[in-house]
Recover the amino acids of this structure.
DNA sequence: ATAAATTATTAGCTAAGCCTAAATATTTGT
DNA sequence: ACAAATATTTAGGCTTAGCTAATAATTTAT
């Protein structure tokens, strides 16, 4: 149906779309996928021809209904495979992303359905991200970023937005994972960095980091 | 490391090599992979440049040690995935091949190792084919083709050589699978077709079919 | 309102993998 | 031994998916 490259673009655009109301820019896509802007322009023309997205020259792209449906199917596969790797194959949550990046492109309706069943139809992946169902419905997450909290507030870590292995390993080193209880002991005015208490340890996190940690409560 | 196409060629050549002493011909590869002879010539030049095979113009190719090792790694993955699909995901043995054809290209040493462990280090795949270990060692199978048996002989089905879904579905329809007991009631002289007794049914199989069924005893 | 900076597009090039048609080499049959 | 048949390679073309450099549009700053 679609090539691996096309699918990677669809998924990237889907993710970037979550963070803007207007069109997804060429440069944001090229940043996300580590390609040049010129390559992106080429590809989005192809995807527009296939009616997977609407493209307004110089004003970015937006997924069509079919484009979004397809992107969600890939996200679903990605997160199911990540769950499989962690739940059944003893992978660490910080080492599954690269492999899932490949596995998400396997084409077999039955495989996805059976994998989902086998895993007990999980609602969230090992990073706390919601897994779309077969129809593309996402279980909505009450999302709040750690960076939005005030001094003195307490919360539980519910998700991580940066899929890079280095970020996840960094968090693991600090003792931060899904379900970790955190208290904001101090917010530094000038760079918005935070001091946090985790159990009885104190750790420092930059704004870049706290922006990518989703919390609840 | 290698592309999907390169890996498919290596695997095809590995399989074809099992059936000849001398070089694997261009046309046999193109037949196996459903490509043209011209495409094969191009690809084997590339693979020869990478020292995965020895190529003598007009006299076919032979895998080098590294080429063979790589082919075995792909065969290993293919058969492990087939086992996973049948043993854990409720696939039928006759519907796993196409998906395994994709899964065999996933690159992750840890994934293969963990999958093997998870499945209990199986020695044979759902078609009765031996699964190479991590070092590329194949558990040797005492292989005899059903077509080699004489009238009156009895045997147990131990493997099937044609991976096509249609062949496997055909056998399933006739009640033939791994472990099925078969008695040769008649061998037709002129086309070498066989009449077989399975339980209390009698079935007819062509030479083409009996050539692709491995038996024991 | 214009100039400068930024962002996006186009043009032109490359490599992998496929193809068909033409040219060549090998094998087979007499 | 040679012609015919068959197999293989070469030549030339196409698509996908990337790149750099040049051009054009938009946005920002003066
Ligand atoms: Mn991917
Ligand atoms: Mn994830
Ligand atoms: Mn394959
Ligand atoms: Mn098999």
């Amino acid at each position: 149906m679609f090539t691996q490259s096309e699918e990677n673009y669809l998924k990237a655009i889907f993710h970037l779309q979550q963070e803007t109301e207007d069109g997804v820019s060429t440069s944001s896509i090229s940043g996300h996928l580590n390609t040049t802007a010129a390559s992106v322009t080429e590809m989005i023309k192809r995807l527009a021809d296939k009616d997977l997205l609407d493209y307004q020259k110089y004003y970015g792209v937006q997924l069509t209904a079919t484009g979004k449906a397809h992107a969600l199917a890939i996200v679903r596969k990605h997160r199911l495979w990540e769950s499989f790797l962690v739940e059944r194959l003893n992978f660490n949550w910080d080492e599954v992303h690269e492999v899932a990046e490949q596995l998400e492109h396997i084409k077999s309706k039955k495989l996805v359905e059976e994998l989902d069943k086998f895993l007990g139809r999980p609602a969230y992946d090992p990073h706390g991200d919601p897994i779309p169902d077969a129809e593309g419905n996402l279980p909505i997450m009450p999302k709040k970023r750690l960076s939005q909290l005030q001094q003195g507030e307490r919360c539980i870590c519910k998700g991580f937005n940066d899929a890079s292995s280095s970020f996840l390993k960094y968090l693991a080193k600090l003792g931060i994972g899904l379900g970790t209880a955190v208290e904001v002991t101090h917010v530094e005015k000038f760079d918005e960095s935070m001091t946090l208490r985790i159990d009885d340890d104190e750790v420092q996190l930059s704004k870049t980091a706290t922006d990518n940690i989703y919390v609840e409560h």
The mean pLDDT of chain A is 94. Residues A 79, 82, 125, 127, 129, 163 surround manganese (II) ion (ligand 2) (CB under 6 Å). Residues 74-139 of chain A form a domain with the Arc Repressor Mutant, subunit A fold (CATH 1.10.10.10). Chain A has eight helices and eight strands.
